[in-house]
Design a protein that fits this description.
Elements: H1 3-19, E1 28-31, E2 40-43, H2 48-51, H3 55-69, E3 73-79, E4 82-87, H4 89-101, E5 114-118, H5 130-148, E6 152-159, H6 164-176, H7 182-185, H8 189-213, H9 218-224, H10 226-239, H11 243-267, E7 273-276, H12 277-293, E8 298-299, E9 305-308, E10 316-320, H13 328-343, E11 347-353, H14 357-369, H15 373-378, E12 379-384, E13 387-388, H16 404-421, H17 430-450, E14 458-459, H18 473-496, H19 515-536, H20 540-560, H21 569-592
Parallel strand pairs: 5-6, 5-11, 6-7, 11-12, 13-14
Antiparallel strand pairs: 1-2, 2-4, 3-4, 8-9, 9-10
The chain binds one RNA strand through helix 14, strand 14, helix 18 and helix 20.
Length: about 600
RNA sequence: GGUCUCGUAGCUCAGUUGGAUAGAGCAACAGCCUUCUAAGCUGUCGGUCAAGCGUUCGAGUCGCUUCGAGAUCACCA
């Protein structure tokens, strides 16, 4: 039970004793706002019916009861129907000792739940871009947060390695590639394959224009252009396991995987389970057959298979094309089936953009219709918002796509320049300097993405570099580095001094805390609840906001009070220990965001 | 057209079961380094929470309407 819950319990007890009722819903406890004295606040308005007294009288009555019956309550004040309760410094001192004694502070006990978080899920026909970065960072962070909350978490990646779009880049490379390879060009494999995906589109569009010039309608031109017909033919061959097409597919996918692997490693994301649609689409097809047999789906005259969802307020959904090849939904059904069968999941979280809300609505509905209602209920679509540019959505046709590798490299480069400018790299080896640039550059990028509520569309302006000052990753990293620096010096002093610094327990009863010290302890106490709430709402942004607030509060403390120059040994000792705990919680919180906090920067 | 999401300071964002005088950062301006790292600290400026109506002790938060922006409804994924 956390502190807020204990206060609530006490208030509930007071209300019951005083008014003879115990209505849980009407006892509202929240943290007292900064501008008022006190730690926790009880809103008494909902209790007036029971007390039959004025707001102030009710609040005073409850306050007096709490002060008399709970030794940790130091006092209270009443303002306009708000009862502000203050707890004793000794209470907070005890909480601090608990935190300091817990090396895994914030980690929850095992929930017994097994959860899979699916994220990343790239297509193997083009390199990753800014949108994928948000997906990867979010998915990784949500998985780590849930793990910290006590769930058994599996990170899953479903690679979209088959389909008409893959055939497009294969075809273009076959036709115009001239045998180019990553080795021969020095290009990262995913970028090379992406180049041919773009090439396909260019040629295909040209063919359409040509046909339309001959009087063919746009729609007809789209369907009958030779390029698209060839791609469709290639997909049929692939599903028939044509050896030549299959070999080409394996070769080009291999290039892409090498490229993705490098991007993933640099971003610091990882996976416990890899799924490939090429290995699950057949399962999906058999599920569709099952649905046909049971009359859930139906076949049209042209051979295509559909599900009629109009009774559920949706449209008709295609599940197999007329030529028998499968679509996105077909393979997704198969993958969902495989996962639930193999892993006994209590929850399956899909980290997928909100542009696919409809798809997941349909997926759950189809699973339920097929008789897997339990699985459908266990699926949660973490529907995150798009990253937009000032001119709107990224469009590959207009060349406005922000490439993931370029973006990361740019951030690291900026971090390097800024560090050098500030003289932070003086006296460091090349390796150390490079490591700091990498840590800070990625820290800025990750924090920039993760501080925003996942559900909201966010804006990224490539012309303005991501900040390194203010509410940013580097700000928090810097706070940590500064604390670590103080701690290193503190340890040195203690080595040189005779008796060293005092031990943890000696004389701590007499320390008079400055206000910021109490505030820091209280904020440290909040950390586990923040992690839990972030897990429940799948929002790393809550952890980001917390880490920022903690760093900010510490910075003002650091500015106002000297630690190493403090003459009273017990006070100096406490300040060092408090600083160490702040650094520790910052490190733990930032780790959940995938951000490394450096020892120096 | 149907369904859904969003609209908070010049800009980027917080504000999560409805609670007190709506908060940060950036930008602008004014201060603070002989003192533990100034990627820092302090202050000033900046708001009709898109608009209106309603629900109630109380609404940025809940409901309805209007306006504005976006997503989606593919034999693309």
């Amino acid at each position: 039970m956390n502190i807020e819950q204990k206060i609530r319990q006490a208030a509930l007890e007071a209300v019951e004793k005083l008014y003879g009722v115990a209505d849980e819903a009407s006892v509202q406890i929240s943290k007292t706002r900064k501008e008022f004295a006190g730690d926790y606040t009880l809103v008494v308005f909902p209790l007036l019916k029971a007390s039959r007294k004025s707001p102030d009288a009710t609040a005073n009555e409850i306050g007096e009861y709490l002060a008399a019956n709970h030794p940790d309550v130091e006092g209270f004040n009443v303002i306009k129907g708000f009862l502000n309760i203050s707890l004793r410094a000794s209470f907070w001192a005890a909480r601090f000792e608990e935190i300091a004694a817990d090396p895994e502070f914030g980690r929850g006990a095992s929930t017994g739940r097994t959860v899979m978080v699916e994220y990343s899920s790239p297509n193997t026909n083009k390199p990753l871009h800014l949108g994928h970065i948000r997906n990867n960072l979010l998915g990784w962070s949500v998985a780590e947060i849930l793990r910290e909350c006590g769930d058994t978490v599996l990170k899953g990646n479903l690679v979209n390695d088959r389909g008409i779009h893959i055939c497009k880049s294969m075809l273009a490379w076959q036709m115009f590639g001239g045998g180019e390879t990553p080795e021969s060009t020095g290009m990262k494999g995913d970028h090379l394959v992406g180049k041919y995906y773009v090439e396909f589109d260019k040629r295909y569009k040209a063919e359409q224009r040509e046909l339309m010039a001959q009087g063919v309608t746009e729609e007809e031109a789209k369907k009958s252009a030779p390029m698209i017909l060839a791609a469709q033919e290639m997909l049929r061959k692939w599903e028939a396991r044509d050896p030549e097409v299959y070999a080409l597919w394996e070769r080009m996918n291999g290039w892409v995987y090498d490229g993705f692997e490098r991007t993933y490693r640099r971003l610091g994301v990882d996976f416990d389970r890899m799924y490939y649609e090429s290995q699950t689409y057949l399962l999906g097809k058999s599920l569709v057959e099952e649905g046909l047999a049971r009359g859930v789906f139906y076949r049209r005259d042209d051979g295509s298979v559909w599900c009629d969802l109009t009774a559920d307020g949706l449209d008709e959904k295609l599940l197999l094309r007329a030529d028998g090849t499968s679509v996105y939904m077909t393979q997704d059904l198969g993958t969902a089936y495989r996962r639930f069968e193999d892993e006994r999941l209590d929850a399956l979280i899909y980290v997928v953009g909100n542009e696919q809300n409809y798809h997941f609505q349909v997926l759950k509905l189809l699973l339920a219709k097929l008789g897997y209602g339990e699985w459908a209920d266990a699926i949660y679509h973490l529907s995150y918002g798009m990253v937009e540019l000032p001119e709107g959505k990224m469009k590959s046709r207009e060349g406005t796509v922000v490439d993931a590798d370029d973006l990361v490299e740019g951030m690291v480069e900026t971090a390097r320049e800024m560090s050098a400018e500030l003289g932070k790299l003086d006296g460091l080896s090349t390796e150390e300097a490079a490591e700091i640039a990498e840590t800070v550059g990625l820290g800025a990028l990750k924090y920039f993405i993760l501080k925003v509520d996942p559900r909201k569309t966010m804006l990224f302006d490539p012309r303005e570099s991501i900040d390194f000052n203010g509410n940013t990753g580097p700000f928090i990293q810097y706070t940590h580095a500064r604390i670590r620096s103080v701690l290193r010096k503190g340890a040195e002093i203690s080595r040189n001094a005779d008796g060293g610094l005092g031990g943890a327990g000696d004389g701590n009863c007499e320390i008079v805390y400055v206000p910021q010290e109490l505030e820091l302890i209280k904020m440290l106490c909040d950390y586990p609840a923040v992690v839990r709430q972030a897990g429940e709402s799948h929002s790393p942004s809550l952890v980001a906001a917390y880490a920022y607030d903690l760093a900010k509060l510490y910075n003002s403390y650091y500015h106002d009070h000297s630690i190493l120059k403090e003459s009273a040994e017990a006070v100096r000792d406490f300040r060092l220990r408090l600083s160490a705990e702040v650094a520790g919680v910052i490190r733990r919180a930032m780790r959940l965001l995938g951000i490394i906090v450096p020892e120096r920067m």
